[in-house]
Description:
Chain A has 8 helices and 12 strands. By secondary structure, chain A is of the alpha/beta class. The first copy, chain A, folds into 2 domains: 2-79, Orthogonal Bundle (Arc Repressor Mutant, subunit A), CATH 1.10.10.10; 86-199, Rossmann fold, CATH 3.40.50.720. In chain A, the strands form 3 sheets. In chain A, strands 8-9-7-6-10-11-12 form a 7-stranded mixed beta sheet, with helices on both faces. Chain A has a 3-stranded antiparallel beta sheet with strand order 3-5-4. In chain A, strand 6, helix 5 (95-102) and strand 7 form a beta-alpha-beta unit. The interface between A and B is large, with 68 and 67 residues.
Amino acid sequence: MVMNGKKIPQSTISRLFVYLRELTELDKINIRTISSAELGERTNLSDAQVRKDLGYFGQFGVSGSGYAVGELKNALNNILGKDKIWNVAIVGVGHLGSALLAYSGFDTHGLKIVAAFDADEKKVGKKFLDITIQSIEEIKQTVKKKKVELSILTVPVGKAQEVAEELVNAGVECILNFAPVSLNVPENIKVKDVDLSRELETLSYFLAGKNGNNKK
Amino acid sequence: MVMNGKKIPQSTISRLFVYLRELTELDKINIRTISSAELGERTNLSDAQVRKDLGYFGQFGVSGSGYAVGELKNALNNILGKDKIWNVAIVGVGHLGSALLAYSGFDTHGLKIVAAFDADEKKVGKKFLDITIQSIEEIKQTVKKKKVELSILTVPVGKAQEVAEELVNAGVECILNFAPVSLNVPENIKVKDVDLSRELETLSYFLAGKNGNNKK
DNA sequence: GTATGTGAACTATTTCACAGCT
DNA sequence: AGCTGTGAAATAGTTCACATAC
Lengths: 216, 216
């Protein structure tokens, strides 16, 4: 992406959320200022990395003393669009899907689960907290009615492409895909893959000692 | 990492697993050869990327015709150390932990869950399939006894560092960390972070339209 | 003195492009 | 003719290092 003519790495965005989380903690325990070195220490990143990341968005620090925790927190909240609450749908209420449904952490991140879908007729109609599981056929109308903006895809590999198309068709623009398959969707749809087996496999590869180093 | 004097990107390793998965499918449906362009098509990667990745490990292709599916599959299985089965422990049997415990996909990836731990006394002793949940105190002896090589950390943020240290102390060298916190562990321990909230947050940031493009 | 902000240098990774093999 | 293998070019991302601000 581009900002003020500078290109901002995707990884910078991801780290901003980490800084924000840390700043929120610091704020709670009444720490008022922090240097890039300290913030880096707490997040396992270099001081230069912290400054560079923040530098893409403006000048938040004070030479000689560091960053004002509260101010920087607010700035990041603003930059990251955390003022808004996003409506999320979970598609596929198997083990992983129901774990995510039950996971309470999302609210604190501006994400609200408003719907859940499953192809299994036996599951349809069941309630999970305050969400009633609906059938896949109802995706389109529910996405519109509940203004779903983001969806989490936790269906089996074989169904993933098909369901993804249904979501796109219904107007969803962002998909967090847990199926270990590459989804083919239009350019304007943002897909993020989370492939748990692959993460583990990659780890085990490194464990096998076939690598030359062990750096993170 | 280094191989034949060439440096191999971490991301190449990760993609190798994707190729392997695809090749296994192709093999099942009796497709004998495939070009880098076709394999790239199926995995949403460029032909050049496919060839470059494979090129780090040797010459597997035939000019003019492509790669022999079976051969390449075997080569990758070998390179990635998928001949071995890795023993995995899950620490923290909450929603996510139990979803992973129940997730059957691991076996097909050479990963075998051999133990599960939880701090909650009420959960200790309960069985999940053929795994009995043990208390955190038993980590050290069980890791040794069951030869746990890889662990999945699904405990609350506040406990993560402490439990990670216990795992390291018990001899575990690889941790897949689901807690949204940076673990401080010795250099030789391989940690991979999977931060679900962060993935979603990053997606929502892009959804907010504050980015300049929508490329994946 | 201490810590930021930022070009410049460095490192990593991807894409290009084409010689060479079948 | 078609497709690989691979240096070279291009692009992306990180770290350095220092002038500048408080």
